[in-house]
Amino acid sequence: MPYSAETTTDEVLAGRALDGLRVIVTGASGGLGEETARALAAHGAQVTLTARDLARGQAAAARIEASTGRRDVEVRELELADSESIRAFAAAWLADHDGLDVLINNAGIMACPLGRTAMGYELQFATNHLGHFRLTGHLLPALRQGTRPRIVNLSSAAHKLSAVDFDDPHFERREYDKWAAYGQSKTANVLHAVGLERRLAGEGIHAYALHPGGIMTDLGRHLAESDVVELMRRAKVDPGEGLKMKTIPAGAATTVWAATAQELEGRGGIYLEDCQIAPRCGGLLEDPGYMDYAVDPDSAERLWMLSEKLIGETFEI
User: Fold this and answer.
1) Lowest-pLDDT range, 41-55, 81-95, 234-248?
2) What domains does the chain contain, in order, with CATH numbers?
3) Mean pLDDT (whole number) for 136-147
4) Residue 240 pLDDT > 70, yes or no?
5) Taking the mean position of all CA atoms in its chain, how far away is CA 178?
6) Which of 50, 72, 211, 213 is 20 to 30 A distant from 152 in Cα terms?
7) Which residues have a Cβ under 8 Å from the Cβ of 185 and sit 6 or more positions away?
8) Which of 3, 121, 176, 182 is flagged as catalytic?
């Protein structure tokens, strides 16, 4: 069936049975992550939610169980800006599960004030990209045991705001720009999917990046009105029209589609939007599609090497 920007998670999964599908959704204590987990669980998937705040994650799991009648929604604590938290989560999850069919790298932060990890890394790049890069690497043994496994990275149209600055990704020599930092991290999410596809497609593991759309969620908790005005200026959007927005069920639909769509079987390393494979972008934030630099294979390799160096780990791929 044809899909659009208004398509919802339940419409994507109508008539689908996902019994036995094993899924991890990062950042699922609310918003898109919770809706993604709810929709998948409602159709039979076994879902693990991760959350920085365990109490909020447990509350989200309770809401999902109440709405779906399930009693097996799992919640685990995970802080993507903390390497030890990632290692501990992955080790514990691998000890309790045999395989993983879908890893949904959903968690993220957006346009926050300048922050740094204990290693001195810029917080948006460290959380949105490096944390998921490390997590995915540690979960590869389970993905290799999955059935037609997929890795889904939530990027954003905001990747059009900045390519990855390989010379100064952590804003150590240039002035911090919250929107450039966010855009860079979202470009990295796409390049990560391209790098994963190159390495894993031969094993039957496929990776995707996607733009969920503009949605009012807790992701925007750091934004002041002036930040939204600045974003619209950079996007060249008429302030009188504003940015196009989606409901949460419509925003999570492309994630659910990426995780389950039969038409994506056997292919990956692609950018998705509105439950479709997106075209190349015309250049504006509101234009559909992706920028060439976000899918450039040479940049994907450069980012992979940089990421391994920054986290101090390499993975058997």
Assistant:
1) 234-248
2) 9-306 (3.40.50.720)
3) 98
4) no
5) 19
6) 72
7) 108, 124, 125, 127, 128, 129
8) 182
